[in-house]
Amino acid sequence: MGLIWFLLIGLVAGFLAGTIMKGRGFGLLGNILVGIVGAVLGGFVFRILGLHSTGLIGSLVTATVGAILLLFFVGLIRGKR
Question: What domain of life does the UniProt record list for this protein's source (predicted)?
């Protein structure tokens, strides 16, 4: 059951990040992947900043922030703003 929640949070975080970053989403599977990688990146960034999130909403916020950062850096590498 934990894997299903992890994938759902990844999907929602990837979708939200793609929407916030104005269409830089990558489709269903791509958004899940962006959300999962974003969750790891967001957790790392939050830990460095001394922030802590708990629960479903906290996990979603952490994953979304990480996914936004990931899409931002991918956009910089690709040359898109």
Answer: Bacteria
CA distance 39 to 74: 16
CA-CA distance, 6 to 23, in Å (whole number)?
23
- Asked whether the CA dihedral 61, 67, 71, 76 is positive or negative, the reply is positive
Q: How far is CA 74 from CA 21, 25, 26, 27, 40, in A?
A: 11, 11, 12, 16, 16
Supply the DSSP symbol for 26.
Answer: -
Cβ atoms of 28 and 11 closer than 8 Å: yes
pLDDT tens digits, residue range 13-72? 988 988 888 765 677 788 888 888 998 999 899 999 999 888 999 999 999 999 999 988
